[in-house]
Amino acid sequence: MGSQKSGLDKVIYLVLVNLFIVFLGIGLIIPVMPTLMREMSLEGSTMGYLVAAFAFAQLLVSPIAGRWVDSIGRKKMIVIGMFIFGVSEMLFGLGQDVKVLYMSRILGGISAAFIMPAVTAFVADVTTLRERPKAMGYVAAAISAGFIIGPGIGGFLAEHGTRLPFFVAAGLGILGGVFSLIILKEPERAHIESEGEPVKPRFRKVLEPIYLIPMIIILVSSFGLAAFETVYSLFVDHKYGFTPKDIALIITVSGVLGIIFQVLTFDRIVGKIGEIRLIQICIGVSTIFIFAMIKVSAYWSILLVTFVIFLLFDLMRPALTTYLSKIAGNDQGFVGGLNSTFTSIGNIIGPSIAGILFDVHIDYPYVLAMVILAISFVISLFWKKQKPVFKETAE
């Protein structure tokens, strides 16, 4: 596991580059989707179904992919996932029929299901418990950076052709797969022995409080964030008259601040108060600030509230991932797959309900998000720190 090493294993950075490439590729295509919609005469509902196809594929495949991460290896799943991602982007770039686009998005969801648990398991294998918060902060930062930089590059590439961003994303994915195949080595895994605890079937473990409570919080937080983000631009446009430039500036600055905190301060915060306390603080404070989002009206107040909400979610997600990696034992891939599964459920349900509620009343999506987060905060109060029931032994 590399306990004798000082600093993070350098191979982590190649894995992080792969993750960055995937989310950069997802971000690249955002600016061209409206143009593509017009070119292919697609309806808005079709664009929504394409997004849902990605999420459903990731949802269905994640539990299986998580088990494969543990059985056939982290490297193989990363490499296969990168190649699938490349093929999915290529298909979307070439597709002239909506059926091809659906196939592309399904493959994209499968690639995400392969890559995410494999990366988190890989990082867990090559870090010590002390190093892991910093490494997981870097994982979250790589995802955020891809989302932030991608749309800007995609908008520039689209000037030279609507389909070009898809081909660039495909090339990056395949290139990442090739480099991973050549450079990455399957990490050695510390063998985790249970101290007096009977071995339980994997899916029964999910019902244990140490897994069940964080999975509920993952579901709720992804639901809340997806609901918040889905209607954010509509909310500030309708209620406060924000321009697209205002919205882009707010989201970009929030993302950059999140990356800075994830890279520079996340591991220190976890070291001082622990993952569970950090998650509880993030949920509680975000509940208050979402309520404030409904009440404030001054421009700078809206900016401040938005920054805080995005920052809290940016800290909570790596805290959850770090906690799960510490309790997963020999099931790093399986637990990573569950993380992706519950995240996908929230990402599917959140935008759908938020959109429906927005049509009823502009404030209702945030009222729901606030209530759901308040309930999850109460649930988190029953979450106790896991007692050490595992010990590591060299293979």
TrEMBL record:
Keywords: Membrane, Transmembrane, Transmembrane helix, Transport. It is a multi-pass membrane protein. Residues 11-388 form the Major facilitator superfamily (MFS) profile domain. It comes from Psychrobacillus psychrotolerans. The lineage of its organism: Bacteria, Bacillati, Bacillota, Bacilli, Bacillales. This is MFS transporter, DHA1 family, multidrug resistance protein. CDD domains: MFS_MdtG_SLC18_like. The chain crosses the membrane at residues 12-34, 46-65, 77-94, 106-124, 136-158, 164-184, 210-235, 247-266, 278-294, 300-316, 337-358, 364-383. It is found in: Cell membrane. PANTHER family: MAJOR FACILITATOR SUPERFAMILY DOMAIN-CONTAINING PROTEIN 10, MULTIDRUG RESISTANCE PROTEIN 2. Its main location: membrane. GO terms for cellular component: plasma membrane.
